[in-house]
Design goal:
binds thymidine-5'-triphosphate; binds magnesium ion; 389 residues; five-stranded mixed β-sheet; 15 helices
Length: 389
């Protein structure tokens, strides 16, 4: 049975929120990004004309667009707006899958009778986002781009085709036409490396994939080779899974200079474990999964995760787990950014039931609580842990 999937992606999201909050910025090249040695998070379409892009170092953005208005990231505010947008989408269908702060899939299954034509649905979504997020003046409002297709991957490609404020529809009978001339790197799962590997085989556009014997692609790319053939045919059965992305709490820092010094990396992890542990404890949250994030000098991003048997908010366990992940990682290229995050919340209080028997974790958590209390009273600097913890 054919499906109707919408993919919605906000336009220049962080920069657009800044323009809504301060309409004087409307029509101006706004660049949102890290204050120190950070990178551009996003740029308004006005700034993109100068070649400013996400993930570009700020200094490069300043060189390309000296007249740009550079603003720091206000994540809390963007999350607030994101929640508003998601609530608008959830009013359309219960089948909403949020995939990042500014994008989501909607499966319109069963809602046709309620909402009518899918194009009307898309227009209504645009209008509601527009009206419910515009603040002081109608000129400054948020726009999104929407793709409508029989499956998720086509809807996502479609939403990107006519940004900003786009609406692109790929009807079932148009799928082959839509795909054939598309650059192969638009397919999901193709990064710069596999793009290069495909190019070496002479595969540039999607139609080239279908000219290739599937067996050969499988030998070259393993299971993904077969998935590629399916994608090239427009086949994708993956369902819209109505749940929010796993919540996580984390901290990350960019070094003033790239480093391979394990002691510097560990020291940063310690301060991050302290910060994240304290925030978890104050929110009463315990997490099972610890993730180490490393961004290298060449901007490649690596994450390594480990799930514990029991959820925790003990600083030492967060630190020890992150260090274990770091030590297992074969560190070759210098690191520019390190981060530690905790996710997979739950598990609650799991204290031992036998009186007098205190588990190691409980001891650690008790010490943490004591430290938190002293710090609260006397200030952050009063207790610092040695990096041997
Ligand atoms: P995107 O949807 O990729 O970008 P965008 O919404 O800014 O622009 P577009 O119109 O092309 O969709 O990402 C959403 C937000 O995520 C973006 O506003 C800022 C943040 N982000 C980063 O912080 N770093 C990045 O490298 C990228 C790509 C996005
Ligand atoms: Mg976007």
């Amino acid at each position: 049975m054919s499906r109707t999937i919408l993919h919605i992606d906000m336009d220049a999201f962080f920069a657009a929120v800044e323009q809504v909050d301060n309409p004087a910025l409307k029509g101006k090249p706004v660049i949102v990004g890290g204050a120190k040695r950070g990178v551009v998070s996003t740029a308004s379409y006005e700034a993109r004309k100068y070649g400013v892009r996400s993930a570009m170092p700020i200094f490069e953005a300043r060189r390309r667009c000296p007249q740009g208005i550079f603003l720091p990231v206000r994540m809390k505010r963007y999350q607030e707006v994101s929640q508003k947008v998601m609530a608008i989408l959830e009013a359309v269908s219960p089948l909403v899958e949020q995939v990042s702060i500014d994008e989501a899939f909607i499966d319109l299954a069963g809602t046709e009778r309620l909402h009518g034509d899918c194009i009307q649905v898309a227009i209504r979504i645009k209008e509601r986002i527009w009206s419910e997020t515009s603040r002081r003046c109608a000129e400054a409002c948020l726009t999104c781009s929407i793709g409508i297709a029989p499956n998720k991957f086509l809807a996502k490609i479609a939403s990107d085709m006519q940004k900003p404020d786009g609406l692109t529809i790929v009807p079932e009978e148009e799928v082959q036409n839509f795909l054939k001339e598309l650059p192969a790197n638009k397919l999901p799962g193709i990064g710069p490396k596999s793009e290069e590997a495909l190019r070496r085989l002479g595969i540039l556009i999607v139609a080239d994939i279908l000219r290739f014997p599937p067996g050969l692609l499988q030998r070259k790319f393993g299971k993904y080779g077969l998935r590629l053939v399916e994608l090239a045919q427009g086949i994708d059965d993956s369902p819209v899974i109505p749940c929010r992305p796993a919540k996580s709490m984390g901290s990350e820092d960019t070094f003033p200079e790239d480093t391979t010094d394990i002691n510097i990396l560990k020291k940063q992890l310690l301060s991050q474990a302290e910060e994240v542990g304290e925030r978890l404890r104050s929110d009463g949250l315990k997490g099972r999964t610890i993730t180490l994030k490393l961004k290298h000098s060449d901007f490649t991003l690596v994450t390594r995760s480990h799930s514990l048997k029991e959820a925790t908010y003990a600083t030492k366990i967060l630190y020890d787990t992150a260090v274990m992940l770091l030590e297992r990682y074969d560190l070759k290229t210098p690191v520019r950014l390190i981060g530690l995050a905790v996710s997979n919340f739950g598990g609650g209080q799991q204290y031992s039931l036998l009186p007098g028997v205190e588990k190691e974790t409980e001891k650690l958590e008790r010490v943490d609580h004591a430290i938190d209390r002293i710090r609260e009273k006397l200030g952050r600097q009063i207790i610092t842990r040695g990096s041997n913890l």
